[in-house]
Predict the 3D structure of the following.
Amino acid sequence: MRGNPAKRNLRFAIIPKVSHPWFDEVNKGALAQAELLGNQLGIKIMIEYLAPKTANINEQNSILDKVASTNCDGIAIDPLANPCEMKAIAKIKTKGIPIIVFDSPSSNEGISSVGNDFTQQGVVAAERLVKLIGERGKVAVMQGFPSAPNHKARYEAQVSVLKKCSDIIIVDGGIDNDDIEIAKQQAAIVLNSNPDLNGYLCCDASGPIGIASAIKESDKTFKVKVVGMDGIKPILEAIKEGVIESSVSTIPRVQGSMSILILWQSTLGVQIPQRIDTGIDVITQENIDSFLSSS
């Protein structure tokens, strides 16, 4: 395949689901990759980090439309819905602007994805919790933003694992919409309504932070086992305290880094892979100190 002429100045946009500490880590990885490429290639790469204030599909589409009108060199988005269903993404593709998704699967052959296996992540978390509670008891599962492909995949995987255990009762754990305060409020309601709750699962990085806070306030530490998602600092600190037993984590800085690398390659016209798997980490009491030291 013949490549495109290399440009001396590039501008890429990172559009997360919402303003959130997890996405700040993605941006750090993106900025580091941009600096590395710029220094090695003698070019200037600018990163625009455009986070919606709340997880809202209309707001995310609006940001996409505005970015597309500026003719940037590439876009990486963590979509709040299936990319095939977002009209703004289709418009961008018709303009010839490279666009990829991160922290999300992609069923569109023309849109590459950077992230991990979200179904596997959900399975690992649920299977760990099942063992912790002896395959019996009451378990709450908190949803994230229900239409977000990665949150949906994790949730469905967790529920599927739990349903295989005849002695486990599944409880509606609430919906946090990727908002830490909402997660706390939802968890407090669930804990109050289910004093005999044995375990809690969630589907995003807001869930474990909110759940941990609600558990501490209700004096349920060590009484309710929590296996979280992701590994940003508040989650790591809750694991260290023992409020969260463990977490199955994505690697956000790598997702940001690889997103910029793929977008840069796209500007050259080279063929890029359909999917980049950035892996998962299982964070426990045994390895928490190493994660905290590098956070």
User: Anything to note?
Assistant: The mean pLDDT is 95. The two ends are 41 Å apart (CA to CA). The longest strand covers residues 168-175. The domain at 118-249 is CATH 3.40.50.2300 (Rossmann fold).
